[in-house]
Design goal:
The structure is a single chain. Helix content is about 45%, strand content about 10%. It contains eleven helices and seven strands. The chain has a seven-stranded mixed sheet. The chain is globular and about 55 Å long.
Length: about 350
């Protein structure tokens, strides 16, 4: 995530520092070992709201946040305000692909989130090559204490942290859960939300986990390496406009000195808060390298083959024409070269997309 003294909770964490929202990317691998249960599509519509991309909406978001949102929403977002069908929340917004659950006091943030989610949906649908079978639920808890017991939390979660992720855990089941995402002070005053790209990237990342588990149901831990799932989710993050300095900066530095971490050792970086950002950065680097070689179509061919065969090596051969060992050697040579040419994380990212 981002370069602001982040404290990461053992999975891509998220911390609000000086009022900046940092959406975590909870490691969905620990939450979803089985196919999620399909959520019924809600068809009701009350108090329909249409949010044009070129005008200020009436929801209680600040002018700064609203201006930033015009860069997020590429199409008009239409959604309804309804009474919540969950006993844990007052209200929900219902759009084409989402239900966002929240308390009335958090309406401003809910308004931001449903727009960023709808912005992320077609991006993730393009990357993963399909659509979800039902609306995706997002549950927004005002505080850590509201969320405790209702969503998975890491061992380092605390009232001073902000976190969340996609999971299928009861009692809420299949959905994205987040807590402490609001700026300090007035929950509907979003003027101090400085980095709107955290919303764009974070929502695309978490939504990407749901796409991954629905469209590729046979790719599951412990057979599936975590770098694959999380790397693609970070690819989603960047494609949706997330902060590309996060992860790629430390990856560039490490690769320029030590070379990339071996694929069979990469998941170990996820086990420590000291190396979690490097894990996400290098996992992202692998996926971007894949796409630079064969495009998103090649990435989907890799996933399709892996989903059918559960064999990682044959998936490399099918999508890239070489086995895993040769692929890794080529990946090593390419990323070393690029890391020495780039001066920062974003430079590394853009050179990587061009390929070698």
């Amino acid at each position: 995530m981002a370069p602001k003294n982040l404290q990461l909770v053992a999975i891509i964490a998220a911390v609000i520092i000086a009022g900046v929202l940092v959406l975590s990317t909870i490691n969905a691998n620990h939450y979803a070992m089985n196919q999620p249960t399909t959520t019924p599509i809600h068809n009701g519509s009350v108090n329909q709201t249409t949010v044009p991309t070129t005008s200020t909406q009436s929801a209680p978001a600040s002018t700064i946040a609203q201006t930033a949102l015009t860069t997020i929403v590429t199409n008009t977002v239409t959604y309804a305000t309804e009474a919540s069908d969950s006993p844990y929340f007052d209200t929900m917004y219902v759009s084409d692909h989402f239900k966002v659950y929240f308390r009335l006091a958090d309406q401003g943030m809910a308004n931001v989130l449903i727009q960023t989610l709808e912005h992320a949906y077609p991006i993730d649908s393009r990357i993963y090559g399909g659509d979800l079978p039902s609306k995706t639920d997002l549950y927004m808890f005002h505080t850590f204490y509201d969320a405790k017991g209702l969503m998975p939390m890491s061992s380092t979660a605390s009232p001073n942290s902000s976190g969340g992720g996609w999971s299928v855990d009861p009692p809420l089941g299949d959905g994205i859960k987040i807590y402490n995402t609001l700026p300090h002070g007035d929950p509907n005053n979003l003027s101090n939300v400085e980095n709107i790209d955290w919303y764009r990237g974070g929502m695309a990342h978490e939504l990407g986990h749901r796409f991954f588990y629905y469209l590729y149901p046979n790719i599951r831990a412990p057979v599936r390496p975590n770098w694959l799932d999380e790397g693609i989710a970070m690819y989603d993050w960047a494609e949706a406009g997330g902060d590309i300095e996060y992860g790629f900066g430390v990856a560039r530095e490490n690769i320029s000195i030590n070379g990339p971490v071996l694929l069979n050792s990469l998941d170990k970086l996820q086990e420590s808060s000291n190396t979690i950002e490097l894990f996400y950065g290098e996992a992202s680097t692998v996926i971007d390298y894949m796409v630079s070689r064969a495009g998103e179509r090649g990435l989907r061919e890799f996933l399709d083959t892996y989903n059918q065969t559960k064999n990682l090596n044959s998936s490399f051969v099918k999508a890239f024409g070489v086995n895993e060992t040769v692929f890794e050697t080529q990946y090593d040579n390419c990323t070393k070269k690029i890391s020495l040419e780039a001066s920062n994380g974003s430079g590394f990212y853009y050179l990587l997309k061009k390929g070698c």
